[in-house]
Amino acid sequence: MASGGSYCLCLRVDRDLCLRVGSLGVLLLPAGRYIYVGSALRGLEGRMRRHMDLNLGRRSKIFWHIDHLLVEPGVEIEAIFIKPSDRRIECKVASSISRVGRAVEGFGCSDCRCRSHLFQVDDFRFLSGLGFEPWFDGR
Predict the structure, then answer these.
(1) Could you tell me where the DSSP H helices lie in 43-129?
(2) ∠65-116-25 over CA atoms, to 5°?
(3) Which DSSP symbol is given to 18?
(4) Does residue 36 register a pLDDT over 90?
């Protein structure tokens, strides 16, 4: 596996959530499927494991916007797709996903000019068409 790249966390949210996320304040997320787009130019596998550990309750430190969602009961990582790269491409990926998903305004993009890095979607199958490969499939 390459040491760095972009990733898509494919999440299932079992119930409507009222979620407090740092400076974004309170967000209302309807139940459904979501894709979060991120990157780790060094330590991609470590980042994936950190997200999974947080989601499974084996870690508790909240650092990023996505962490607030991952620790919520009823939120499960269904799959993780990766795209090895030595460049930051997550904004380009987020732009592509925005064409098929509904953006959660301001989520995960405090360090860029994107509208969002979290999108509610109907399914995840289209990610392979964007050049992503499965890293984890818990379905």
Answers:
(1) 44-55, 65-70, 90-98
(2) 45
(3) E
(4) yes
